[in-house]
Amino acid sequence: MAAPSIFVSSTFVDLQHLREHLEKFIANFGYTPIMFEFGGIGFDYEKPIDVSCYDEVEQSDMFILVIGGRYGSPATDAVKGKSKTYLSITRKEYEAAINSGKPVFTFVEASVLNERRTYNKNKGNQTIVYASVDDTQIFDFIDDIYGKKKNNFIKSFSSLDEITAELRSQWAGIVKRAVNAKTSLDSGERIRLNSFKLFFYRHRRGMSQREISRELNIPVNEFQKLERVRFNKKKSTVTTTPISPFVIGLCFGIWKKHCKCRENWRQVSSMTLQQCLWSSMQTTGERKPG
User: Fold this and answer.
1) How far apart are CA 148 and CA 38, in angstroms?
2) What are the DUF4062 domain coordinates in residue numbering (predicted)?
3) Residues 143 and 18 in one domain
4) Which residue spans within the chain are E strands per DSSP?
5) Given this model, what pLDDT does residue 48 score?
């Protein structure tokens, strides 16, 4: 079985010692460290070196970002004209991880985070010299991470032990969730659907029968047989033709991804719809959402 690959991104000169310890820590954990100085990156001779790093980020399983006092070298084609601002290679690696949906574990030196607070209170003041960083773009980089809607956790650190302890905790959580999910599937736990739930789910998403059939990869006529619902717009009522509940199989992944059913049930404003939903749920032996 292939071990999870972990891409480690940081500037090199100021964090070389830390990177060496992280490489050993990841390897001892049974995972594969991806770091340019230790191998693992396939450099394409037809591309700039940093572009090969971004490609490798997309192929990795997880991403560790360590931010110290150096902003880093500019990425290829990152500098335009006489502008003093640019995207560093480290920042581009981070963006590649975010864009490809990798779990990101971000660590920032405590002294840098402390000076960031001062910087944010004095933006525009060019007379201040910050002792912990070589470029104030580091603070903008951190602000960008905090500004993400998800995958934006930042851990302050003063020692390597703080990083490794946090990684142990986070990776243990990932393994636990994966095991629990597999156990639930193996035990036969499934979401049960009936005709009303399909109707309700589809209309909450604003999809036609043909569109959702295409997404579920089933013939539209088969979906129509499952969703036997008549909707009276004038009376705002829904009636269903009773069908035996069926265990969701092919639909399981998409249902879990797109429809948090309990949240949607609470959002239904029409009591008629709520009553119809509860009536249909009784046939599946489910509890009424509270």
Assistant:
1) 31
2) 6-97
3) yes
4) 5-9, 32-34, 62-67, 104-109, 154-157, 192-193, 229-232, 237-240, 246-247
5) 86
Query: Distance between CA atoms of 61 and 43, rounded to whole angstroms?
Result: 19
Q: Which two tokens stand for residue 73?
A: 């070298």
Assess whether 59 and 103 both reside in one domain.
Answer: yes
> Whole domain around residue 107: which residue ranges?
5-185
- Say what the pLDDT of residue 200 is: 67
Question: What is the spatial distance between Cα 228 and Cα 225, in angstroms, rounded to a whole number?
Answer: 6
Nearest by Cα to 280 from 254, 243, 225, 235: 243
- Residue 288 belongs to a domain: no
Task: Give the strands of the sheet with 32-34, arranged side by side.
Answer: 32-34, 5-9, 62-67, 104-109, 154-157
Decide: 108 and 157 in contact? Cβ < 8 Å. Answer: yes
Residues 13, 45 within the same domain: yes
| CA–CA gap between residue 97 and residue 54 (Å, rounded) | 8
Spatial distance between the Cα atoms of 94 and 71, rounded to a whole number of angstroms: 13
289 occurs within a structural domain: no
Q: Which residue has the tokens 């049930």?
A: 265
Its pTM stands at 0.64
pLDDT attached to residue 25: 96
Q: Residue length, the chain?
A: 290
Q: Is residue 287 part of a domain?
A: no
Q: Are 84 and 136 in contact (CB under 8 A)?
A: no
**Alpha-carbon gap, residue 288 to 228, rounded angstroms:** 22
CA distance 241 to 31: 53
End of a domain among 154, 185, 216? 185
237: left (phi over 0), alpha (psi -120 to 50) or beta: beta
Which pair of structure tokens corresponds to residue 33? 């460290």
